Amino acid sequence: MDRSLDGIKIVFLDLDGTIYLGDELIPSAIDFLNRCEEKGIQRFFLSNNSSKSVTEYLEKLRGLGIPAEANDVLLSTHDLLSWLGKEGVTETFLVGTDGMCSMLEEVGISTQSKKPQYVVLGYDTQINYEKLATASIHLHNGVPLVASHPDMVCPSPDGGLPDVGAYLALFKSTTGVEPTHICGKPNAGMITHKIEELGLQPSECAMVGDRLYTDMEMAARAGVVGVLVLSGEATLDDLEAAQQTPDVVVNSVAELL
Lower CB density within 10 Å: C or N end of the chain? Predict the structure, then answer.
């Protein structure tokens, strides 16, 4: 497989560091999306970033000139909701944003329970000491921890910002507790359910992203074509040290199709 992506029918696209960086589009990202449409390639937007709800993501995408509908957006929060549902969890204490809170509350999951079944950790850009302290007390009292995704940093034009992985390290230092489960990429379930739903083979799908340990790892687990872009977190030095090489490596989506 090369950057032309011949034979690919679906592209799963990471957002932060792949389509945009902060509030700025990656150069020629719109041209790439237009090429997808011209070639009849369906695209889905994936993000481990659980700080925003689907509605907020749609507002951001549309504000950047990218047409998108709710079904086009797949978040680590969706994977988290699926996991909580399978575990029968309805009472949680959430360390997360208002947007993430709304997605949990909409399906009947309490996010400020006095007796939570789980402490739920998301990418909380509204974090404060009270949340950290309350979560730590619950963890000290034996409440288990589940996280929306493992990303250590969130890409930004000014460098990596603390993400869930950094918060997990904080809780480990404070309480000694590690998460029972971590949702989101690189779990293959983030995309395999969509591939099966559409009746396609993994070899007909590509995952395009900027992280080796989430995006490319998930591509490998799901058996889809892994396309690494160097417009976000990963660098050539990271690639040289990696144990597994992506199928395609490009500077940005501008070089694809």
Answer: N
What are the tens digits of pLDDT across the range 234-255?
998 988 888 778 999 999 999 9
Q: Is 59 a member of any domain?
A: no
Residue 95 lies in a domain: yes
Query: To 5 degrees, how large is the angle CA 153–CA 179–CA 213?
Result: 40
Which pair of structure tokens corresponds to residue 204?
A: 């007909």
157 and 125 housed in the same domain: yes
pTM of the model: 0.83
169 CB neighbour count, 10 Å cutoff: 12
127-176 residue pLDDT tens: 999 999 999 999 999 999 999 999 998 878 888 899 999 999 999 999 99
Domain that includes residue 113, residue range:
78-182
Please say whether the beta carbons of 16 and 211 come within 8 A: no
The CATH number of whichever domain residue 135 belongs to comes to 3.40.50.1000
